[in-house]
Amino acid sequence: MTHTTDSNQPDASERSTVTNAPKKKLIEVGLPLEAINRESSREKSIRHGHPSTLHLWWSRKPLATARAVLLAQLVDDPSSRAHEFPTVELQDAERRRLHELIAELIVWENSNDPDLLARARAEIKKSNGGQMPRLADPFAGGGSIPLEAHRLGLEAYASDLNPVAVLLCNAMIDVPSRFAATPPVSPTVEGQTTPWSGTDGLAADVRDYGKWVSDEAFRRIGHHFPRAVAPGGTEHTVIAWKWARTVRSPNPANPIETPLVNSWWLSKRKGREAFVSPSIENGSITYTVVHDPSGPPSDGTVGRKGGAVVGDDTPFSLNYVREEGRSGRIGQHMIAIVAEGPRGRLYLSPSTAHIAAATVERPDDVPEGEIGHYPRDIKTQTYGMTRWADLFTNRQLLTLTTFSDLISEVRQRVLSDAVSAGMDSGRSLDDGGSGAEAYADAIATYLALSLSRMTDRYSNLCSWDSSRDSARNVFARQAIPMIWDFAEVNPFSDSTGNFLGQVEWVAKVLESLPTGSGPGVAEQRDAGSVDYRGVAVSTDPPYYDYIGYSDLSDFFYVWLRRSLRDVRPEAVRTLLTPKADELVANPHRHNGKDGAEQFFIDGFNDVFRKMRHTAASDIPLTVYYAYKQQDAGIDGQVSTGWYTLLSGLISTGWEVTATWPMRSEMSNRPLSQEKNALASSIVLACRPRPEDAPATTRRALVAALKAELPEALRRLMQGAVAPVDLAQAAIGPGIGVFSRYSRVREADGSDMSVRDALLLINATLDEVLGEQESDFDPDTRFAVKWYRQYGWGQENSGIADQLARSSDTSVGALERGGIFEAKGGKAHLLSPSQLAGQWDATVDERVSVWEATVRLAAVMAKDGADKVAELLPSVHTRVNLDAVKELGFLLFHEAEKKKDTKDAILFNGLVSAWGDVNEQARKYASTPRSSQQAFDFDEDED
Questions:
Q1: Where is the DUF1156 domain (predicted)?
Q2: Which residues have a Cβ under 8 Å from the Cβ of 693 and sit 6 or more positions away?
């Protein structure tokens, strides 16, 4: 754990050899969480041009989060530069300046702002001896971390065992810089007289050659995609063909092919209602589209437990369907056509011509790889769909193989045009080239990604959304489902799933990618074989068994490989993605649950042990963990994934110095879904624990927690941590105390486990929050005790009287204070709904912290933050606003323990918006229309 500020030393590996106390980095002291969470959530609504839309990947981290974490990981906290900032006040001011820089830097619109990026790079250099550190992410996945490292001017190194992930990272951090400011080479691109900057030329060529591929594909197979004829005789481009899988009826007296349909609805839009009506004619089923707002007489033919045959309602089980599927006897019927109309969608009955056009032979040379056995997340094998090609209709296979062949062909076209445009031939892209050969490889790669992207909406696993009148994608979640009726989109239409639409998505991402620094590196490599010497590390490792990356990504890889096997053979050298060494706890691959757990633990520990001994020690390691609701441990339980990560880090010699909850849900999600959604990620900052770290006892650990946790929690609560995230954020200072010791001995001499340490931290958190009660006014102390025991319910007035006296108040005073009611021998706290009305704290006879908190929380839930901001100036004249916020934390904690979700949401909502509410309140207080005087919320009197 060393560092030096000698600017003559060239890299992190040399800097880290100088023995000295480590400088704290900003991430180990404070982060502008509100800004980070706001921008990370906002990213969800940004589509065109956002790198996440280059191609699907699972559990991608928001760019705002990754950018903020990297800068805070690399920049010194002002407390580490005492010669520049000798006082706490100066350190606080400098920290605020750095927080403001981060808050400005992470706004999406500022992503490529040259002045902001220059300022950020200057801060990084200033904190790292005048050098830009090297940054490695050994579990690069979707590439958010290496992309942001590249944007910040670092030497970015991305590696992953999965070739799909490596291709994505290569397309984002390597290729764009390699061909920065290169004009397009296609002779048909317009505007070639204008100067080309960044990746604009590359994007223009992707669009142009993508159009050539689409046009040529239509020339070859377009006759299989006829236009639809409406009842009036007009012709329309088809958007999608709706199909239903079929099985033979188990009734021998009526052996028809019966459709498996979840819903007959095609459109539920008001005024455009449409559904399919089946009828039996001459032993076969005819499908007719009906327009009637009353809807179909039945929802469908199959549900979770089984189904019924059309016509005679003969029941059948799902086991019967599975048996038919495994025997190769599942068929398919076209049941409707969706076409582009002059004023929206047209829903038409299937025709003989369209059925004939879709009837094609299975093409040769389709990807024949076996689907991995992962029954939790992949459901198709039990129905006989065991190979990746089975997830597509024959017409879809014809389309995909045609486009795939054309990508190889267009590569030769690009090469010829590039040489004609004056490029040297040079080496291939995989050999580090930057000439015509490499440029042709790059265009083919982006078109292959476009085709792979299309498969997510071009499969027989794409359902039809009758509420939105569009096809859904396969990966609505991180799994491959089995569906009964599906939508086959038209790859040559102008609607969802068409090939040129995918090309446009990719081109827009290209235009947004940074190119300022040299090319980054993306390699296919197991994390255990990465050379970490002298590099900083920020990574988002696999989370135990949450996502089966290799099994799921084969869906895309088989098509990427088919398109690129002659273009970039080294990038797609394996038939399927590697699985044996993938760091995921898959019980079907590692001899059951216990074997899978041991495999994951051993692999994880090997990687982080190697990092501990070779990575740069003057820069903390940052590790992401995707938190889930069940990880909270409210009932004293700790999830396997969370425990394994912490235990692995600590056992391999790391000391946790900070944990930060990062949120990327849309801001309305917790309220809209009536649940408290935990932060979507935890970011841990870690330092190598000294080899001579002391041991301690359980008693000494408890004493240390009680000594250090209260102040740490106070800082967290005064910051931007939401109540729902407090328990997670508290793990940082808590586990930091635990992990500084080489071991903690229990009373029986055994070593304390991380699981027990987490439970101890939670217990200490309970105590610390409970101790805050003594700081509140008597009415509030009474109300907290009553709420803890009885909530908003009624109890005996005698109990209320006793509890009031013990809290140094009285029932009468509580009633005058407007928070309690005692009548007819019964008593109860006034509920939030009873306190949500009009209120002016300046004229209220008796105002307690309890009344202010509950009223403000109720107003927040009912009328929103602006209304709370209007009230805050008057509330400030009567109670300490810091106490209101502290009570909000405490009441959320009590509601969580009572499993009262409604109350937890209520109090979390108030405290989570506290920063924004305060800012808005300052504006209200300082405007002429306000009757209140301007005031400073940060200077409440004790």
A1: 31-100
A2: 655, 740, 741, 742
